[in-house]
Amino acid sequence: MAEEWNEGRPVRNRPERDALLADARLLLDRYGPDARFWTNARDAASDPARDFVRAGLEGTRVHGFITGEHINGIDLFEEQGLIAVSEEEVGFFWSFGAY
Fold first, then answer.
1. Is 42 helix (H, G, I), strand (E, B) or coil?
2. Which of 5, 20, 80, 88 has the fewest beta carbons under 10 Å from its own?
3. Residue 19 pairs with which residues in a beta bridge?
4. Statement: residue 98 has pLDDT above 50
């Protein structure tokens, strides 16, 4: 979630890659071992072990929720999200690629 769809420096090529991944693990660990997760990334459904860091987001198939309309002059297009649910809380993590 720390990169946009077609950016020149995806997470896998950044010098702070390990710190970004550690932050992501810390954030998701707060939901505990019994947490349940959902995503609109169709590629995750067909391959639950897919390494999105290594593969990057380009070419990722998702179920889109955006209509393709402009919102306040911004053309929202590709989006990818994760919903995390534990007994205590719900988290929504979403990335929108926007022009």
1. helix
2. 88
3. none
4. no
Where helices occur in the chain by DSSP H, the ranges are 17-29, 42-46, 52-55
Integer Cα distance of 17 and 70 in angstroms: 33
**CA 58, 5, 66, 99 torsion: positive or negative?**
negative
Distance CA 55, CA 35 (A): 25
3-state secondary structure of 43: helix
Smallest CA-to-CA distance from 63 within 82, 47, 35 is with: 82
pTM of the entire predicted model: 0.69
Encode pLDDT of 41-68 as tens digits.
777 777 777 777 776 665 666 655 555 5
